[in-house]
Structures are given as C-alpha cells and as structure tokens.
Design a protein that fits this description.
15% strand; disordered N terminus
Length: 571
Amino acid sequence: MKETSMMGTVADRIAEALGRHGVEMIFAQSLPSALILAAEARGIRQIAYRQENMGGAMADGYARSSGKVGVVAAQNGPAATLLVPPFAECLKASIPVVAMVQDVERDQTDRNAFQDFDQIALFQSCTKWVRRVTVAERVDDYVDAAFTAATSGRPGPVALLLPADLLRSPAPVAGAPRISNLGRWPLDRTRPSDHDLQTAAERIANARSPVVLAGGGIHCAGAAEELARLQDEAGLPIFTTNMGKGAVSEFHPLSAGVLGSLVGPRSLGFYSHELMSEADLVVLIGTRTNQNGTDNWRQIPAKASVIHIDIDPTEVGRNYEALRLVGDARETLAALRQSLESCDLALRRNLRAPLEERTASFWRHFDEARHTQYASVDSPIRPERVMAELQPWLQRDIAIVADASYSSMWILGQLRAPRAGMRFITPRGLAGLGWGFPLALGAKAAEPKRPVVAVVGDGGFAHSWAELETMMRMRLPVTIIVLNNGILGFQRDAETVKFGQYTSACHFAEVDHAALAKACGCPSIRINDPAALAAALKRGIEGNEPLLIEVMTDPEAHPPLSLFAEMDRAA
C-alpha cells in the first residue's frame, strides 16, 4: 500500500530521472522525505550524514573520486544554509554536485511559513545554476538541466529547489521516454582552433626554457595520460599547483613537484623555483592562477610568454596575458600533441639531458635538507616522519585525502606521487577547515574497495567529529590520521609572523581523539613513539575496517611555506 501511494508522484518521477543519470547514492538526512523514500524504493542508497555542511563535502569527495555527479539533499531553512560552505568549495574547485533542496509549499511562499527563506538568493553566490520547480510538467526538464549545468563547461555545483507539495503531487503522463545519462563529467569536450594550437606548438618547440604549471583541471578532465605523453614527447619540465598534485608522476625525470607557496627552506620548491624564474615560456593548464598556486602571483616571470589552457574562458588571461587555448584539457592536450608532430623538436631533445640532471638535483637537495625531520625518532612526533611512513603505501592503490591548512601542506609538499593521475583530494578551492574527513567518506562511498587515508589536524577534525558515527553506521571504513599538536598551527604561526604575537584562540584544551573514536565504536590508537607508526598504518590500510590513528605531533613543526621563510632561515 505504501509503495502504491508513492507511484506516479513528482518525487517518483525525480527518482526515476536520478536513476537514469546513474545516481547510485544520495547524501541526505531523510529530507526531502518524499524524494528519499522514492529513491530508496529504486535502490538508490541514502548516505545519512549528521550535518549538511559535512554532507555537501561528502558529495564533493564522491564526485572527485568517481567521475560522477555527487548528489546531496537537504531540508529547507537552516539545513539549506549549511550547504553554502561546501558548495563554495565546489564552485572554486570545479566539482559537479547537484543539491535537491526541499522548499516550502507553493502557496506558502512569502507568508513567513516555517523555515521559509529566499533560497534562490541563498544559492546564487555559491552555485553555477539554481532553479525552483513549480510545475509538475517540467520536472524532467529541470532535472536534466541541473545535471547539464553541473557537468558542462567548467563543472560546478547546482541547486534544484523542490516545494514539498509539488513532490507529493501526481506526475503527469510522460511523453517520449528520455534515455540520456548526464551524470558523468565532463559532459562536453571542446578544443581550440587548429590555428591557435599550431601557434602554441611552435612556441613550445622554439622556447629555450619552457615550463608547465598544471592545476586541478588536469584531474577534472582526466587529462593525466595526455599530459604525461606531452611531457615525454616535448621534453617539458612540469610543476603542479596544490590541486594539480599527482597530475604527473613525480618520479619522472622532468617532474619538479608542487610549487606555489611551498618554497621555504627545506622544501622542494626552495630549489626548483629557480627553474620557473628562468622560464621564457610558461604553459598553464587547468589552473586559476590563484594566490596560493603562484605564491602571491610572484612566480610567473614577467619576461616569460604564457600559454593558458582552460575550459573556463574567464580564467584564461585573468592574471597573466596569454595565448588563449580555451577547451577541455584532455582534448586540447591531445590536439596540441598532434600539432607538435609537425614541429622541429630538436631543441627540446638537445636540452633534455641537462634538464633531467638539474631536476634530479632538486629532489636530491630536498631529501638531504629534510632528512633530519623525515627520519626523526623524537617525541612529540614530526609530521614529516608521519609522511615518511605513509610514502611506501602510495605504491598501493590507495586514496589520500587531507584537510585544509597544514594537513594538506604536509601531504602536498612531503609525499611524492608515484604515477600520473594519482588523486590527492584536498579542499583547496576555498581551503575550508574541517572538510578532510567528510571528503574521505565521500571518496570511500565512491570506491568502497579502495583503502582511503584521511590526514587531518586536531583543529580541523573538531569540525567533523560527529561524522565518526556516520562512518560506522554507513560502513564506510576510513583510516584517519589525526595530527594532534594541540594548537591551530597556521593561525598561531601566521599571526606570529605578521604581528609578533598570537591570539588566545590558538591553543586548545587537551582532547583524547582516540577515546572519541572508541565512543562511536571506531577502533583507535594513540601514538607517541614514531616507531609505532608503521604497524598502525598497516593495520588501517590492510585491515578493511575503520581506524583512527591519533599521532601526538610537535606543535613547533610547520610546513616550509614562503610566509615563514625568513623565520626559518633565522632558525
């Protein structure tokens, strides 16, 4: 009887459309109830989060890992407002997420109904597209339009507002059956003109010191293989931005690692940045040329000419005048490689051997400079030592996720990607603190057989403790490494550099994160001795069960960022 009552409703029609677009799960909290009931009746799994902020981040992690659109649902009012932060991250990071948000009944709009709010205005600043469905006959149109907006052009989040009474209404008789699946991204793959590609190819062939700076757009477009071929065929040294980490193998003899703000003493960039400073041509691929990715817009040499490849025409030339190659990164790189076939690449071949030797020296100097911290047996534990223990596991098919702030900087600056296309999931669109753990849960939901390791600080993890219960209840086993230094590290260090003192908010009361995990039924261990790290990681990664590893880390440790360079030199 219950199933019959739901048949033929608008909620039922939306659930069918979601299934057509390949949606296998919705990150939700049982609202909008009519839609969730209809979806679950069709085998679409509900991943029930504890808070909408975290649910939005889970959908983000799912989309990054699966290549499919993440779908999140929420109640109107305060629940909807909590989707704004993760959607702002998705908008900046170009991640397609569709939100199905309940709205008040249609005849209650603008009457101060319970939890009524102008949700169109709410989402306009943090989505590509937001609409309110008011007519049952247009439901299929709007669902398809939402997925199209999320996955086409520069991907991003969208919101579809669904009045509660509309969801319960009878659905009109369907017309011609729809068969399109719009749930994978990118939806369309465009490329620049042959003339512009040939111009770019000739500039690359004739440059004496060209470099590539690859951003997160490589991962969004699935362009890592094409970039790896270009690197070999044209003998191009490649840097990556924070979000571009893993775009190429960092063991390739022409890979110079992450640059950006990671250029302080004992960083790889401390040595390799000279290669960028000498460049006469910089090829930007899938990057917004943002502040952190260019170290305050100081790294691209003024004397260098620039080629910029990006799907978003407004990003090309935003900060650096460039030869515009607007298009999908994978298709554009494939076409660019074809154009290079007609060019004389003798100069590239002649310069390759000394360039490889020089790049190898950067890595050698880096390893020598960080050796003391990397091999430290001290307690509290150095975060570099944690990274040293994690590095061998990258040879396995594991997913690495990190929270914002220092957690992601340790991952991006200390780990070395062993293969092209390896994804390091970090919330670097807006760098919101607390999203590392829910991103990891979304990644695990996307690929349940792949071990997922989440590295979070104690400050960021406090934002998402409640989702430990979600992890256990939804059976999404993740290995969580909590770097517990008892402080807001970046806040303290940045304030110290800028003001010579720091505020009272930087230090925390003591928290036993291992005990918190156990209270939620999650196995846990607290580590004070670095010798215990290897066994704990093995247990978590190979155990196919959740594990929280609380590592008591040195509060004086910080990543080698440019902001701290002067302080670190003095030390």
